[in-house]
Amino acid sequence: MFITRHAEALAVLADTRYVPPPVRQDGREGTLAWLRAHVSRFSTGDTHAARRRLVEERLAGLDPAALRDAARTATLEARGDWRGVPTRVLGAALGVADPDALPAPVAAAAAGYLSGEESPRADAAVAALLDRADLPAVTLLLQAHSAVETLIEHALPHLAQPGDVEALLRETLRHDPPLKATRRLDTRTGDEVTLDLTAANRDPDVFPDPGRFDPARGQAPHLTFGAGVRPCPAPAHALALAAGVLEGLRDGGRR
Ligand code: HEM
To answer: What percent of the chain has pLDDT over 90?
Structure first.
């Protein structure tokens, strides 16, 4: 089933009978499959709640304003070469040693993290990351990497517009979400449900003139950070990292 309406997507996201499609549980320790079997993102029920608590505790120790400042400074120092900046900044804030060396293994592991596509390269990257950081920190780095970089990419064409970067990012999240869909399994029927976030974010019942990119829209109830039972626990951190990079690009000239 494919869901495109905002209200229906919200209802599924709030219903515990819909769970993330299960992932294989028999991966060798330290591999991508093993990691996916041990993170909150793909688990359910009490296991999910316990694992989610661990990442929330780590997030509570991170100050979004400090992430934003660090991302701005790093982007300026890199003379606008911003790729990898969010991951380096997040890694440093999480206390991972040598954060400048994180983007390559994080990108390699993140490539298969959501899709589940396994490869020797992804397995090696996961092993290297787990040598340097604990599971909650690795989870946060992998969840953040592609989503934040894609958000920045999608916002860049609008950077010349006047207005603050928060408004620009909010409307980019609604209009052009970095994650276009998320999936659930209906535990009653075994059917898989795809939630089309781009379509739900342009539902005319909720967003007037939904196809228009309008940073003046204000706090629109987009579904890009999920909702209901297991929304993204880090929207403030995501926005801070992206805003810091955009400010660095605006203040220092861009690439
Ligand atoms: C623009 C950037 C981001 C977007 C659009 C985004 C979006 C999402 C969404 C939609 C989910 C829920 C998936 C689902 O229910 O199917 C999610 C989960 C999650 N996100 Fe984010 N995210 C972003 C950035 C981040 C960052 C920066 C972090 C960490 C610093 C993070 C950490 C997590 C974690 C740990 C989960 C799993 C939560 C759970 O298992 O309950 N995300 N994210």
So the answer is: 96
